[in-house]
Predict the 3D structure of the following.
Amino acid sequence: MKKYLFTCLPAVFLLTALAGCGANGEAEEPGEMEQDENEGEFEAERTENEVKVIAHRGASGHAPEQTMPALNKAVKMESDWMELDIQMTADGELVAFHDDEVDRTTDGEGEVGDYTLEELKELDAGSWFNEEYPEKADESYEGAEILTLEEIFDEFGSDVNYYLETKSTYLNDDMEEPLVEMIEEYGFDEKDNVIIQSFHQDSLKEVHERNESIPLVQLLWWEVDEETGEKEEWLDITPAPSEMTEEDFEEISQYAVGIGPHLEYYDGTEVIDEDFVQRAREHDFMVHVYTLNEKEDMERLMDWGVTGIFTDFPDRLHNVLDERS
C-alpha cells in the first residue's frame, strides 16, 4: 500500500469532513452543542503526530455550512483540513453542497443537479442558519452564496488542505473526471494538500485510476438492526467492524490510504471500538472518524488511536488537544 506523509502547513492556514458526511444526507445539529466559555480562544501548539482537526463543512457549528463565513472561520481556527462535499450542477459545474436537495439550507426547492450554476447563485444559503440558531445569528450570513470548488480553490489556494467528498455518485454522473482535472490544474495533487473521500467505492476507484497520487479515504456507514443488533454496511463495502478480516482491510488498501467510520448509529449504538481502530492502524490506515462535537467523545477516540476527527467545532477540538498537551 502506498504511504503518504502529510506535512503541516503554516499554522494559521491548516485545514479539512464528510461526513456527518452522514450517509442519509441529514446534518448534525450544531445548535444543540453547549458553548464552551473559552471556545475560540486558543493558541494551537501542534506536533506532526497529533490528531488532525478536520473542519466539517467548514466551521459549520459557527456559520452556515460550506459558505465563505464557515470556511473563513475554519481557517481562523487553524483547522488541519477543510472538509467539503462536492456535487455537480445541471451545467456541469462542481459546487460545495452537502444535501442532494437544496431545501434544508437555502430558500429554494429541488435537487442540486436540476439547477444551473447561475440559478444556484440566486439562492440564499445563509439565512436558514440565523433562523435555526438565533444565538449564533449574524446579519452577514444573509444571502450567502453556494460556492463553486473553483471559487474556493481561488480564494484559499495552496495555503490550506482540502478534504473533498464525492457525493451521491448515482446523481452526479462522471464527476470524478472534472474533479481530478481541477485538482491537477491547481497542482494540488503534487502539493499533497488534497484528500478525496467517498462512501462510493466505484467513485474512489475511478479517481485512483485517473491519478494514483491523490490519497483516498473509504467512508463507511454501518446500520444497526434494532431487534438483533446486527451491523450492516449500507453499501456492502465491508462486514461489521468486528467481523472484518485481513482480506477486507487489504481490499480497501488497494485504492485507499484511510478509513472514515462513524462512532454511533442514530439510536446511540456504538459501531466501532478501540480494537477496530487499532486493527485499522496496524494495516497502516489513517482513521478519521466523523462527526464528533462532544469533548468526551473526542478524548475517548484519541485514546483509541484515531488519526483525525471531523467536527463542526474546530476550536473545541483544538481546546481538547491543548488540554492534553
